[in-house]
Amino acid sequence: MRLAARKLAQYEPGKLVPATVSAIANALRWAEMIKDEIDRRHPTNSAPQPGRYIRQQDKGCVHFWPFDGWGVPPGRSAIAEVYPALWNRTFPSDGRDADQQNAFAIAKWMQTADGEGSLERYFRPHLEPDERKKAEIEGCILGVS
Length: 145
Prior knowledge:
Layout: H1 2-9, H2 18-41, H3 50-57, E1 62-64, E2 77-79, H4 98-116, H5 119-123, H6 129-138
Parallel strand pairs: 1-2
């Protein structure tokens, strides 16, 4: 998570910086590989279980937030549900299509929050005990509490 944020820190609007291109390309390749494998294993109208597939492939590198715990251990990538509409208009689109802008806005928001020292609080939202138990089973959206 921090590596992607650091690479995005080198982003300059209108200029493709190799670190930024690399971070985004790697994320897109990983997502496409997972999507293709899910599509192959679970043709339309079947119930895919992407979390199980990722868990089988991750070799201990992925943290499913909040299901694996509220804090993301160092050295792990986090998979979390996010709501891009919270931030996608915060940053200029610079020619990105809507999906690219959503991905960029989430990554840029995380980078900014991490740089300000506030990212951790989003991973540890203030919830009442009953809300926390429910979220640990049903999940919750990062940045919304």
